[in-house]
Structures are given as structure tokens and as C-alpha cells.
Amino acid sequence: MSDQFQGIEPMIYQSKINVPYSWWAGDTASKFYIKLRDEKKIMGTKCAACNKVFLPPRKVCPSCFTENTEWVNLSNEGTVLSFTVARRQFAAIPPNKKVPVIWGLIKLDGADTALLHYLDEVTPENVKIGMRVKAVFSDARKGTIRDISHFKPVK
Amino acid sequence: MDRAAIIGVGMTKIEKRKVGQTFADMAWEAVNKALGDAGMTIDDIDNVVTTSSDFWDGRTISCMAVGDASGAAHKNISCVEGDGTYGAFYGMTRVLSGSYKTTLVTGHTKGSESVSSLITNSAFDPIYERSLGMDMVTACAMQAQSFMHRTKTTSEQMAMVSVKNHDNAFKNPLSQLPLRITVQDVLQSEMIADPLHKLDCSPVSDGCAAVIIAHESVATKFKQQPVWVKGVSFCAGSFFFGDRDLSHARSLTEAAKKAYAMAGIKNPKKEIDVAELYDAFTYQELMWLEEMGLADDATAGKLLEKGEFNIDGRLPVNASGGLLSGHPVIAAGLYSMGAVVRQIRGDAGGFQVKKAKTGLVHGVNGLGGQSHCVFILGKDK
Prior knowledge:
The complex is a heterodimer.
Chain A (H helix, E strand, L loop, with lengths): L25 H14 L2 E5 L6 E2 L15 E5 L2 E10 L14 E8 L6 E5 L12 E6 L10 E6 L2
Chain B lengths: L3 E8 L11 H16 L8 E5 L2 H4 L6 H4 L8 E5 L3 H13 L5 E9 L5 H6 L14 H16 L3 H14 L14 H6 L2 E3 L2 E2 L8 E10 L11 E10 L13 H14 L4 H4 L2 E3 L5 H10 L8 H6 L26 H14 L12 E8 L5 E8 L3
Parallel strand pairs in B: 2-3, 2-4, 9-10
Antiparallel strand pairs in B: 1-7, 1-8, 4-7, 5-6, 8-11, 10-11
Helix pairs in contact in B: 4-13, 7-11
């Protein structure tokens, strides 16, 4: 910086971007969430070309660039592929979740891809890659990913 | 194909908080340093590419905030959102298109002025994932867990990356965080998100970097020795985390293969002399080395223990101190590029390595390395 600015107190300008959005979920996610909300069922979409089953469900197969036209019922149980435990209350963590918060990447039986979600009813020390877990559904379901409350270990 | 060269680099010091400097002030400093380094004036620049993120800057069309300070008036200016290496890729394609001869590429970020957790959380799919509250740190922690599980890489080996890079930073005056630390210091630092301790993570940083890329027809017209782009590629993997095997980075393997082929490199382990990789977290340096074929699968930790990636080792990695010692997010790849360019020119100062004929620059965009950009730079055309 030039000398002429020496000794000038730097000012801070506080601001915020606050823009509400109303996204259509699309017909694929809508179907998934309606099944989840009304029937506590987890469904994936299947690619007719490579036979892969995708969760979260989506309309286009990322490998084949073809439309996924088939729906498949998935098990509520699956395997933990990876996980982490937040020890700091990061700003992105929802206010109703207190650390330690555990997230897992869960491959449900019948799916070829894994779902991100919470692991709970288990201590961080007891979470292991490869452990079997089961979906616990929320009592009040509103058609969001949190209609699944969390996954817990299969006893 | 026509060739392109990097003929000037300029970088601000990376700092925790650049009090008193706006985005434009940082760009002004970096751009003037790059012009001085190249021996050019702003009139010698015929187009500008800025690299920035609207979310990090807190404004839309964030490139326009630094246009004036980058000398873009009455020139074609365009913005790339992502790592600086992607901006450099675009800048290079512009000079190779025949429409331009000299591109000024800048990248700026001030991590200190916003909340990174909220910004990186917004990279998750809003319909299926975002409300779960993950961010870049927790996403990468999950990837680290997966990489450690598959390769048996240890926390001690990851800590050694931190020890090495923070120590290298003492040799680089632009670096934010030189530290003399031990493996124990890393392991005893706060656990942020398992398995990442505080000292496994890069700091929050402010900084701006600029590079000037020229078409071969003008690359030797100015005072600076050109550093040639020998090969370059970028590839992206699946957006959804659960679609990828997180313990691998197939898109990086692919990008590196393509860049090596373009550069005529057959044995990267022998032919790459120096590398600056995206080490936002310790495990990444080891993982990316393996995925790029610079170390065999599941061996990078052991090679690190032997000192192979030290500044005087077989393949010096992040001799500048890397991002662990200062990480202005979007500018990061341009800082890495600046460091390798200086290595090849032989003017890297304190962190100069002995042999630097061919260097590798690596940038990342997306959660847990969804996409990767690899540049191979060389002394000879």
C-alpha cells in the first residue's frame, strides 16, 4: 500500500445476501419424497442400459447419458461406506443438531450408489466402515430428506 | 497445435486477514507484480480472465469488482468460477484460439470476510443433501476416512505432510503460516472432523494471484523467460458424493494421463521434477500423488516417511509450503502455478529445488475433488 494511506483506520462494512428460493423438486425427487413421506419407502431409479440403481434418484444416468425410466424399491438397511464426526459446531450444521454430529455415506441394499445422511443412536467411537445400519423415519414427515431422521446400527 | 507459455506471475502475500485491502486492491497489487515480472505494460494485455466466486465475494458477477484494477477497460473480460487453474486453462485456450495473444488471468479470495462453512454447504444438492449441514471440511473428512481405510495410510503419515509443508513455508516469504511443528503437535491439535485435526486443515486466507499467458508468436517478445505449457487437462467426476468411490479420484487419474500424454511424458515418476498439489487437507497430498501415478497405490505415506517429497527429495511436493501454509481458495491454483513457474525459471529463491526442468501444477474444484486440473510446465518448448 502507498504511504499516503499509512495510519488510516480500516473500516469494516457489514452486509448479507438474503435471497429466498423456491425450487421445484422436479418429478423424480417429488415421487421419491411422496413415497418417503406417505409410505416410509425409499426408492431409487434404475438405468435400463447399465442396470445401476441410483440413490438419490435422478432422471438421467450419469454413466450412460440415458433416461432412467424404472423405479426400484430399496431396503431400509444398508452398509456404511464412510463417515465423519463433526467436533466443531460448524455454521452449516442445523441448529437442532449438536456436536458430535455423525454423517455417513450409506449404501442401501439394492442400490449401487450411496446416500448421505446422519448416523445416530451410536457413539462416534463405535462407528466403523462396513457396519450395517437401518433407516429410522421421522414421526412428522414433510417430504424432505429429513423425513429419514437418521440411520442406526442394526442390532 | 500452437503453443502457449506463461510469461509473467505476480502474487500478493497470503495473509489471515488483509485489513485495509479490498478485492480490487489485491488485484491491483498482483496484476502490477505480474506485469513487472513479465516486463509488460497493461497495453500489452489484450484480454482478461478473472477467477472468483460470487458466493465468496458476496456479490454477483464478482469479476466486475476487480476489472478496473486488472486493467480490463475496453478489453474482453470474462470470469471463471472455480480454482485458478481453470481460469488459466480458459485463458490459455483464448490465446490458442487465434483471437488473442496475451491473457491476464487473476484469481482472488478473501476467506476472512465470509463464512466458509455456509458457502461450501451451498455446493451440496439443495433438494437431497444441503439441509443435512455438511460442508467442505466434513466432506473432505469423510473422504480422508475412506482413503485411510483403503490404503492403510496412518494419521502419523498425514501429520507428516503438515510438518513438511509448514516447514517449507519458512522458505517462501509469500506464505501465511510457516510453522515448526512435530507429528505429535498435529495429532494433539483440536479434532475438527474425524480424522482431521486442526493442523491437518489449511487455514482461512486472503490473497490474489495473477499470471500472464501468451501465444507462442509473442511469448519471447518481452523480457521474461517463457515457461511453456507442455500438457494440460481437466476432468470432472460425479457430482453426487455417493456415486463416487471417495477413496479414489478417477477424474484426476484421467486428467493426469491426458496431460502426460500431451506433454510426451511416459514415466511421470521419473520425468516430473517438482510438483505443487492441492493440499487443502493433509491426506489430499498423498491421495492425489497416488491418483496421478506419482506414487504407487497405497504407498505415498511410506514414500513421504522416506523423505521422497521433501524439498531435497526425489520429487519435491509443495516446496512453497502449499495450501496448508496459506489457502486463498479460488486463487490457490494460480499460487501453485506461480510457484512452479518460478521453480522452472530458477528464481524460486529459498524454496528453489535442484532440478526443475518439468513441473506439475494441480488444482481442484468441487467437494472432495470432484474435478481436477493438471498442468505440465516445462523450460523447453
